[in-house]
Amino acid sequence: MKNLSSAEIRKMFLDFFQTKGHTIEPSASLVPVNDPTLLWVNSGVATLKKYFDGTVIPKNPRITNAQKCIRTNDIENVGKTARHQTFFEMLGNFSVGDYFKKDAIPWAFEFLTSPDWIGMDVEKLYVTTYPKDTETQKIWAEVGILPDHIIKEEDNFWDIGEGPCGPDSEVFYDRGQSFNNLSEDDPENYPGGENERYLEVWNIVFSELNHLPNGKYVEQPHKNIDTGMGLERLVSIIQGTKTNFETDLFKPIIEQAEELSDNRKYGKNDEDDVSFKIIADHARTVSFAVGDGALPSNEGRGYVIRRLIRRAVLNGKKIGIDGPFLYKLVPTVGKIMESYYPEVSQQQEFIAKTIQQEEKRFSDTLNDGLTLLNGVIAELHKKDEKMIDGASAFKLYDTYGFPLEMTREYAHDEGLDVDEDGFKENMEAQKQRARNARGNLQSMGMQDETLMEIKTKSEFVGYDHNEIKATLKDIVSEDKEVSTVSDGKAQLVFDKTPFYAEMGGQVADIGGIYDNNGNQVAEVVDVQHAPNGQNIHLVNVFNELKTDNEYELKIDVDFREKVRHNHTATHLLDQALRDVVGPRTHQAGSLVEPDYLRFDFNSNTALTDEQISQLETIVNKKIWQAIPVKTEVLPIEEAKKKKGAIALFSEKYGDLVRVVEIDDYSVEFCGGTHARNTSELGLFKITSESAIGSGIRRVEAVTGEEAFKYLNTQLQLLQETASTMKVNQLKDVPQRATQLIDDNKALKRDNQNLKTQLTSQKSNEIFDHVEDINGFKVIADIVPADMSALRQLADKWKNDKNSDILVLGASADKKASLVVAVNKDAQDKGVKAGDVIKKIAKEIQGGGGGRPDMAQAGGKNPAGLTNALQMAKDVIKSY
Questions:
Q1: Number of structural domains found in the chain
Q2: Domain Alanyl-transfer RNA synthetases family profile, which positions (predicted)?
Q3: Same domain (yes/no): 812, 770
Q4: Burial class, 879, CB count within 10 angstroms (exposed 0-12 / middle 13-18 / buried 19+)
């Protein structure tokens, strides 16, 4: 077996399948695009779903890739096992309705065993197969796998519910008896079992069936091959390491962590090794995740990043690293991966800064968590209890990032235990909430055989024409291809069309289809891309339509014009955001409608009023400069180098790309329709800015007529406000508003002063009325005040020492308030303000609490105040 680096192995895999006619698909972003079923891209096939479900027919049905992935379902196991990782690379080769078992299996065998490629010893390879899949078993034997190394396993059937499925075959490598961690008679001691000796290398899925909603399985119209081989595992075999973490993918990160620690060394102590592995894994994950646009936050992907950073920081503390350090590992991660993933090195300053800020933020959170934990421990000591409850332990884990073992360690130092069963119950409840939130989204759709079979050539001519005559080539009605249709809904394909199909955030055109006599025969309500790339028109049919007949296709010109203007505005806004917010800002989605546009971008902070004003000024200046909007079709590399065009993350580009230029200010790849000149936009106005998810903000805006309507409406509202405020000129409204606010504040101050005076006067009456209850001097009364006044009275009572116990009630704004205060003598005899308030608060339909000397409560039943005071007296009698 050859001695190869990870970079050489990755390249060798892709080169091998390129020799077999495969197209190399670049690794996609870790942040899924238009896929609500995934939090992260978690497999090589995840980004190819559109090919496998028939939504899109690839130019080449043979595809290979090295795809970066994140999986977070087993975070707790990372560092504790040889191969668990949150970030990993999946090598794969895929056939979309092309080759099948007779090619896929021999190629896998050739790549692994040929001296021209990896050169593994055939005798060390084992394969598992689905028992009924005799064809696969036969082919493996024919290529050279020893008969007793072909194992039948019922689990070798890949099925995720509705959609494509089929038998699979896994390839295992025997690392030898020295790696065996089980006894010879252990039922897991075999290729395919849970052991360290036989390492799974490759999984080949023969996707030949469709799992229908009714539970039945039927053959797919196009059989597919979907394979996955973890690069890290393959590298560990080739480099002869005990685990993935000693390979060249991790070792430089671990070595840097050793230098940052207090003289700890990897391989000397099992507990330290776990921390080193966690740090190395999480450094890779967060570097790539942030590089792909995900930012730390309290939800979704952002929460995963935050949790990984905190887990790494806590493990840094375990090996003697104090203060932020994870950000220092980013350049090392970038250097290891830059041969295939240059993006981390290219963005290392931004990535490192983002991670460092999060580490600093966690330092504060960590202190808050310790405060909570110390409070829980103190309360247990006070009650002479020995168990930290599961809910508190989980809160420390979920909110403050404390792993259970850290809480357990603190508890044991204090002679306490942790309710780990309760912790697990809270953890499972959270997972269930997450599952419920995700719902039952289908991971991969089933193929639409009818649309997949339509191979008609169709040309889009809508850049230059609003109406044309075209020949109807295909009609699909009720999921069947027909030659004629007279009513209802149908899908139509013409040899050419002016109708734009929805793509890149721009909505589809609408319009009509007319016969040669000028009669409208159908209404176009939507246009989408068919699997083979044609623009397929979704229509309501009025009169008979026949294939091979000629029809006139007319788009709704007013609709198109407004969409064109808004699309050009998104390009200007995109660049303006980079100018105002920062060069790292990038698009995270968009929608271009005729009456408004929206633009999503990555940011953890809201735009300020000043930034919004700057954006509007930049875009409007470009509009008023009347800049021609130019389009040009160029080879993709020329467009990138010569024009410096920006490629949007959500799009896949071919060899030729359409470049949209607005002077030298905005140059982007774009297949949408645009204004001919920026002056056509007329006016640009941002109408809203908001958060829509973790690290993602949304701007909504209008142009032209809609912008005029919006501003006119705002002006009318301002005029109405001026009239209400009795201001003659609009320019005086802000000054008048400021004056009214100041007047209101002054009135509130005066009102509060009067309340204070009344309270002071009332206190003389209240404090003169002292009752003797069970040997305690008690003052209990209802006063016309609010909670603030009650607290003032309690402070005065404390200073004046008028009685042992004070119980006051008040009502304001249909709400009830209670305050109980107890002096030290009464406390020593067992009276606690917090205990009293908890017992009487129910009378006002509320709750509260506090310290032994002072407690308060609020409720929504002022009528219960009399009963509350009487109950307080009864409680005092019981002491």
A1: 6
A2: 4-713
A3: yes
A4: middle
Last residue within a domain, chosen from 187, 221, 249: 249
**Whole-number Å distance between alpha carbons of 847 and 837:** 8
Residues 6+ apart with CB under 8 A from 435: none
For the ranges 538-542, 647-651, 755-759, 804-808, the lowest mean pLDDT is seen at: 647-651
Whether residues 509 and 642 fall in one domain: no
CA–CA gap between residue 676 and residue 564 (Å, rounded):
9
Verify that 322 and 230 share a domain, yes or no. no
Both tokens assigned to 137: 């078993």
pLDDT band at residue 699 under the 50/70/90 scheme = very high
DSSP element (H, E) containing 151:
strand 150-152
23 is written with which tokens?
A: 């197209």
Question: How many residues are recorded in the chain?
Answer: 879
Domain of residue 532 covers 458-555
Residues 541 and 462 both lie in one domain:
yes
Average pLDDT, the chain: 89
Beta bridge partners of 129: 152
Binding-site members are 567, 571, 670, 674
User: Measuring CA to CA, which residue among 298, 262, 230, 222 is closest to residue 67?
Assistant: 230
Angstrom CA distances, 408 to 8, 368, 422, 423, 432, stand at 44, 17, 13, 11, 25
Tokens 């467009």 correspond to what residue?
639
Which tops the pLDDT comparison, 741 or 441? 741
CATH number for the domain spanning 820: value is 3.10.310.40
Q: For residue 716, with 0-12 CB atoms within 10 Å meaning exposed, 13-18 middle and 19 or more buried, which class applies?
A: exposed
Q: Which residue numbers belong to the known binding site for Zn(2+)?
A: 567, 571, 670, 674
The CATH number given to whatever domain includes residue 618 is: 3.30.980.10
Whether pTM > 0.85 for this model: the answer is: no
CA angle 359, 361, 366 (to 5 degrees): 90
DSSP state of 77: G
Average pLDDT of the segment spanning 270-279: 93
DSSP H/E element including 422: helix 420-438
* 748: in domain: no
Alpha-carbon gap, residue 16 to 116, rounded angstroms: 10
- Could you identify the residue written with the tokens 């007779």? 102
Residue 435 above 70 pLDDT?
no
Q: Which residues contact 437 (CB under 8 A, 6 or more apart)?
A: none
**Per-residue DSSP letters for 701-726?**
EEEHHHHHHHHHHHHHHHHHHHHHTT
Would you say residue 502 lies in a domain? Answer: yes
- At 387, list the tokens: 């168990």
